[in-house]
Design goal:
By secondary structure, the chain is mainly alpha-helical. It has one domain. Helices cover about 70% and strands about 5% of the residues. Strand 2 and strand 3 form a beta hairpin. Helix 8 runs parallel beside helix 10 and helix 9 packs antiparallel against helix 10. The protein is globular. The two termini are about 20 Å apart. About 50% of the residues are buried.
Length: about 425
Amino acid sequence: MRRAVLPALALLVAGWALTLWVAPWADERVNDLFVYRSFAEPVLDGGLPYRDIAFEYPPLAAPAIALPGLAGTGGETFRWAFALWTLGAAMAVVLLCGALARVTGGAARRAMLAAALMPILLGALARTHFDLVPVALLLAGLLLLIRGRPRTGLAVVGLGVMTKAFPLAVVPVVLAWLVARGRRREAWQAGLACAAVIAVTAGAAVAASPKGAVDAVRYHLDRPAQIESSPALVLLGLDAAGAGEARSVASHRSDGMLHPAADAVTSLFVTALVALVTLLCVGVAGRERLRNRRLHHGARSVERRGRELVIASLAACTGFALFGKVLSPQFVMWVLPLGALALAWRLHALAGAVALAAALTQIEFPAHYFDVVAREPLAIALLVLRNLALLVVLVLSVRALQPHRQEQLLDGRRPAVAVRLD
């Protein structure tokens, strides 16, 4: 693995350079750096998030956003500092993908090289958003869990939740994984550790400003379906079918969609997310007969069990993005480590679906974002294809967790489909 580290990191740095200087990867005409810089400056002057500065993210996002401002909050200085900060987070993600591949019986070199393609697949949005920080925390938590440290692992996942909420979808999956393997005591202790991290961090936000903390929650509850999200695409479809008018609205620092059926549609997608997480919990739990068989497969069984957990956990993050009422382009970064690990396990169809979703995102954003806002048919069609690619990621992930496929893994047989699971 050590010999693969330098080539992977070199590839990552080269990709980062592309996002700084070479079109189309360097296109950053739409980004969040101004918002981050406007937040970092008063925080570094002593202001508190929620109390002195309105803040829409969980509490631990504050240091993730403000730390690059230590180098300076001028436009160009902050841009470079944030690029270096996110490059460090990307390096951590690459190394964690390699470690997870190794501990789950995959090819660490393939995982790291695939993860290093992030800037090439996504362009400038990889370095102009802080999402790689919670991604790294999630991967670190999963690695600790698979290595037999569930309390610390789930506490680290809790840190990810309080940086950006999407790792929350992973927590039930982890608990189901632990309980199904007879580790009930560790499961509730790990759950308590995660809850304690979330409670203490959220408590600090409430202590700083109860009203500000409530406003941050209300901000997300009140915002309309963002135009790139799956619910918004359904609302546009209803409009095209003559079933109510979908009105565009600029609010909550994004472009949203209003429609008489908006609440019903978003509620339906939330239900779909809950159903998905439940299905993933069942998938990682498996059948009792299958669990008993694994007791006789030694280290190989440990590798497979860890692989199940990673597939299910990152599928849950994909669902969080796909079924939520906001699907900002940077959310695809939550899914890319799955593609890297899928390639390491020779799940080529799954890796290809992740890469396709990322490539379609880069084609759409930011070059055609304003065409999406204007509801240009080709731009909307591009979004539909991207979201369908994410749906394929979900389908292939759930399929890989089916009991009969797990049995094939244990017996060392290839499944009777085009993708290899071993």
